[in-house]
Structures are given as structure tokens and as C-alpha cells.
Amino acid sequence: MDKSKIRNFSIIAHIDHGKSTLADRILELTKTVTKREMQEQLLDSMDIERERGITIKLNSVQLEYKAKDGQEYVFHLIDTPGHVDFSYEVSRSLAACEGAILVVDATQGVEAQTLANVYLAIDNNLEIIPVINKIDLASADVERVKEQIENIIGLDCSDAPLISAKTGLNIEDVLEAIVSKIPAPDDANDQAPLRALIFDSYYDKYLGVVMSIRVREGVIKVGDKLRLMASGAEYEVTEVGVKTPKIVKTGSLEAGEVGWIAASIKTIKDINVGDTITNAANPALEPLDGYKKMKPMVYCGIYPVDTNKYQDFKEALEKIELSDSSLVYEPETSQALGFGFRCGFLGLLHMEVIQERLEREYNLNLIATAPSVIYKVFLTNGEDIVIDNPAKLPDPQKILRIEEPFVNVKITTPEEYIGDLMNLCQTKMGVYKDLEYIDNQRRVLVYDMPLAEIIFDFFNKLKSISRGYASFEYELIGYKESKLVKMDILLNGDMVDAFSMIVNTKFAYNRGSQLTKKLKELIPRQNFEVPIQAAIGNKIVARETIKAYRKDVIWKLHAADISRKKKLFEKQKEGKKRMKEIGSVEVPQEAFIAVLKLD
Ligand code: GTP
Fold it and tell me: What Pfam family is a match, any one (predicted)?
């Protein structure tokens, strides 16, 4: 293959600026998929992605383009997600490319995640092509956005394509820019020992583990014996191909190409995304640079509602881990919820998406507890321990001090919301650091604050205060001491470990009373009275009571009203699905995460 005709690139953008829509137009224009096959946002293949309109997993596709110079080019387009929780996926896809298209919404301009993604692209030495999207909208302000990109990022925008991914306007300019600006991998050496980077993988019932790879050097073909450099495992290659986006078998992949391979691998543990594949017969000496391993920021317990499903749940986690190596988990037991796993995530959205994927793709019914960060606890006996589950915090008399993770938060916002956003940060224990200027309308507000406070509904509040216009990103800066206590919740006199949380003493009473009130709303009436108490140590700090049913609701219905009765039963059954029996009280899933929705 003529390597000077290959272009490997990603599309990067802030969330909702139009990456997936642009990818769709590119597929259409290059006739990779016919109009009839074209489903909106073809690359977003997971159901959850379509419903939420966000991109979660990266996806790669090979396409052909006949450029204005009359030559045929082969593009590998690797789609990336835009949400802050998924920057891990972004850096993975960028490591497989030579260039990136930076999509900026002409009505919004440069936002937090635009910058974060640009930095990732720069780290990977990529050629970045700025593209200004949504110029069909009346509120588009192309000149202002060009100026922002030049001032803040330092990219020349004089010939940046001005497009509408929605209407298809000027998409060809993007394709031509890819040809003329992104370097070809033409120095890639087919003769060198094989080195291929695994940037994604998933499990297929028939093929076993399927790996998405970027071949840096050498050639890989069916029948070769491959070696995974990190695990040392060896397998014979059974299938090699590309996605167009249909699976196409090519038999081999050369240096510079992006595609997939399968090798009847059933041992999921052997495959690590970020690892290098080499040829066992002629191995490379050094692996390629892997990825920076991402550390989970947020932990929660996840339990099957039906305790008999524990084994299925465990297998599902193993399979999901294959396509999402940022997920970590280990077995855990809860008095209230039984056997489950403590799982670590990059952020809240990541947590929700994994729970949803587990339920849908593996047909499981799960309960997740309120998320927690990792605390460092220094004990009076000289030991220090880390706590990812509030229920495990030792007695206060054994604790010298507790440290919690702090993050540096950068909020990008139109000027008019600054006052209200500063108030929000202050109530979240934020420490003001800086106010930076982007242009005459936008500012970046910088605060240090406890990560735990970001988990507690920071995102929704930020969005509602700024009517959706502010965006934020955060970065871990380290651990600091805080005055923290464990608050337990007692239901009908019994402590429910899954409800325990670690709170700042400053809010403890307030959160206790809000949480008991919220639980009272969420837990349905039972046929006996249920007290809900919040306690710090032995001290009850708040109490609410769920009154008993006066009568069974059914008896209130007229005997002839059968269909209504049936409906009521169905509704009750539906409601039961996500209920967990704790002691003698039935508790719905929402109750376990109620703490996230407190005012
Ligand atoms: P994530 O995958 O969630 O990161 O978002 P994305 O950047 O892929 O954005 P997506 O392509 O899903 O587009 C977001 C929204 O903007 C969708 O409702 C699109 O229909 C809309 N949109 C995208 N491009 C254009 C455009 O050129 N003009 C207009 N008017 N709307 C657009």
C-alpha cells in the first residue's frame, strides 16, 4: 500500500459541538455508507449513546476519498467522546493518529473541554486542524470564535473550514484539509519487527477478544504468532481486517494502518488496552509508549438486586472492563445489600453509563450506592489507611486526622453568571484562585475544592445557574486535611451500611436533615411505621417518620373496577423491580443516591 495516501485522524471537540454529526457527513460524502444505510450518528452505536446523544466509546472506521488532486486517499477516522469523564478514551484514540480535527461550535466558542482535548492532541504531537461548525445558525459568530482559537490556543484560523455539519455545507473543505495538512505515516517501516498499539478491545462470542490496533512498524497477518508485550501471552492470529464501518477482512495490516485483529482469545485478562503487540518469531525489543493509566476518582458499591445473579454480574464486569480499562472493581459485601463489587470510575457520568451498560447489555438489575471519593485516614496507632467506602471508616477515637482529595476546577462561563457561580463554589468549600479573561464575553473562574463536593450535584447546579452556558473541567491537585465525620442512616432502628457517608462537620447536621427528609419522600409506605434517623456516632442528628398505610389501597377500589385494579398491580410490580428489601423495609434504588440530589 502507498503510505503517502494514508491519513489517520480523530475529531476532537467540546461536548455537543458536533463531532458525531461531522463524522456522519464525512462518511456520507466519501460514500462509505449509502444514504439508505445512514442512520443518524452512525458511529454512536451503543444504545445509551443514541439516547443520551453523547459519544462514549471511541470507534474507528476506514474510508476512501478521491481528492481534488485526482488521487485516492485512505482515511482512518477515529471518533472520540467529548465529556470530561471520558478524556481517557480521547487520549487513547489520539495515540493512534497523526492529526486531529478540532471542531468548535460557532455559537459557543472555545470551552473547557475544547482546551483539554487540544492539550491531549499537543501531547501526542498531532497536527491540529481547526474547523468552525454550526455556521448555519443565526447566532453563529465566526469572527469572534476565530479570534478565540487564535488567542487562546494559538492555532492559525485564516483558512479554517467554516461548516455546517448539519446541512453538509463545506464538508469537502474538511476532507481537503485532511489531505493537505495531516502528515502521512510514510516513514512507517514494514520491514521492522512488528509493533502495534492496542487502543480498544471488545469481546465477541465467536471471535473472542477483538482488538483495535494501530500498526506502527512491521506487518501483521493471519497465521502469525503474536505476543502481547505486557502480559507475555502468545496467540495465533485468526482474523485481520478493517471497519468500513462494516467488518471487512483484509488478511493483513501494514505499518501506518489502523484496523482490528482477533486470535481466538478467551482469556480476557491477557489483553490490556495500551499494550504493544509484537511477533513472537521476530519480537521487537521495546514496547511502544503506553497510556498514562487513569486513576478512578469516584467509587460506589454495585449489587445485583437478585443475589443469585452475583456470578453473572461478575462475568459482565470482566467483559465490560475489556472495552473500558479505566473501570476498576473488587468484591465487597454489605450487610444491607449482600454480595457485590466496589467499583471505581473516572467520574459520575462514567459511573452512570457503566451501570446502564451492565443492566442493558447483560440484562442485570442492579443497585448502586451513593458515590464516594478515596479518603486517607491517619490512625492514632501510627497506621494510615485508605477508605473508599464510608461504611468502613474506623471509630472517631481511633482517628488522628482525615485527608480528602482536592481538585483544581476551571469553570468557563459567560461573564454574567460569575457572581452566582462564585457563590456556588463558596458553598462547596471552594477556595478562590483566579479569574482569567478569554475575550470580552467569557471568563475562566478557578477554584480549589474538595472532589467530594463536585460529586454532590455540582454539575447540575452549575448548568442551572448558567442556563447551560458554563462548562467545567477539573484536575486532581492532591490531598488535604478536612474536618470530616461519618454519618450513618438508621432505617427502622437498623443501621444501613449502604447509606453511610463521610461529610464535612460544617454540613453534617444540614445534610442529615435533608437526607432523612428526602428518604421519607422516596421510600414507599410500608404496613408499619418506619423511623429514619441520621446519626453521627451515637448521636441522632435528624429524624423523620414514614407513616404506615392506613388500609391496603386495593380495598378502596370498586369491586367491578377490574382493569384499574390490574393497572395498579402492574404499577406496583414495575416499582418493585428496583426495590431492595432491607430488613423488613423495601427501599427503591433512588434512595441510595438521594444524597446526590440534596439542595
Ligand atoms: P458528543 O458526542 O456528545 O461529544 O457530542 P458531539 O460533539 O458529537 O455533538 P453531536 O454531533 O451529537 O451534535 C450535538 C448537537 O448539535 C446535535 O443536536 C446536532 O444535531 C447539532 N449540530 C451538529 N452540527 C450542527 C450544525 O452544523 N448546525 C446545527 N444547527 N446543529 C448542529
Answer: GTP_EFTU
Measured from the Cα of 83, ligand 1's closest atom is 4
Domain end among 467, 482, 497: 482
Q: Looking at the chain, how many residues does it have?
A: 599
- The pLDDT, as a whole number, for residue 547 is 87
Given strand 208-217, what is the order of strands in its sheet? 234-236, 225-228, 276-279, 195-204, 208-217, 258-262, 239-243, 247-249
CATH of the domain at 337: 3.30.70.870
From the list 73, 41, 74, 83, the residue with the least C-alpha distance to 59 is 41
Task: Read off the pTM.
Answer: 0.65
**Which amino acid, residue 264?**
S
pLDDT tens column, 255-314: 999 999 999 988 777 787 788 999 999 999 888 876 556 667 788 899 998 888 999 999
- Helices 19-29 and 171-181 meet at what angle, rounded to 10? 90
Report DSSP state, residue 218: S
Q: How many helices (DSSP H) and strands (DSSP E) are in the chain?
A: 14, 32
Cα-based angle 185, 110, 199 (whole degrees, multiple of 5): 35
- CATH value at residue 95: 3.40.50.300
d(Cα 332, Cα 319) in Å, to the nearest integer?
19
Contacts of 379 (CB under 8 A, 6+ apart): 385, 394, 398, 399, 400
Q: How would you write 540-595 as a 3-class SS string?
A: EEEEEEECCCCCCHHHHCCCCCHHHHHHHHHHHHHHHCCEEEECCEEEEHHHHCHH
Atom of ligand 1 nearest to the CA of 15: 4
The answer to whether the beta carbons of residues 83 and 321 sit under 8 Å apart is no
Q: Which residues of the chain have pLDDT under 50?
A: 53-58, 554-555, 557, 575-576
Is 577 flagged in the annotation as binding?
Answer: no
Neighbour tally for 239: CB within 10 Å = 19
515 occurs within a structural domain: yes
Domain assignment of residue 157, given as a range: 3-181
**Which pLDDT value is given to residue 15?**
83
How big, in percent rounded to 5, are the helix, strand and coil portions of the chain? 30, 35, 35
Check residue 176 and give its pLDDT.
Answer: 97
21 is in an annotated binding site: yes
- Decide whether any atom of ligand 1 lies within 6 Å of the 396 Cβ: no
Give the Å distance between the CA of 534 and the centre of ligand 1: 45
What is the atom index within ligand 1 of the atom nearest the CA of 137? 30
Q: What are the backbone dihedrals phi and psi of residue 413, each rounded to the nearest 5 degrees, phi first?
A: -150, 150
Query: Does ipTM exceed 0.95?
Result: yes
Omega cis (within 30) before 588: no
Cα four-point dihedral sign 503, 505, 511, 513: positive
Question: If we measure between CA atoms, which residue out of 350, 344, 454 comes closest to residue 409?
Answer: 454
Question: Residue 286 gets which letter from DSSP?
Answer: S
pLDDT of residue 214: 93
Residues 307 and 260 in one domain: no
Residues 92 and 177 in one domain: yes
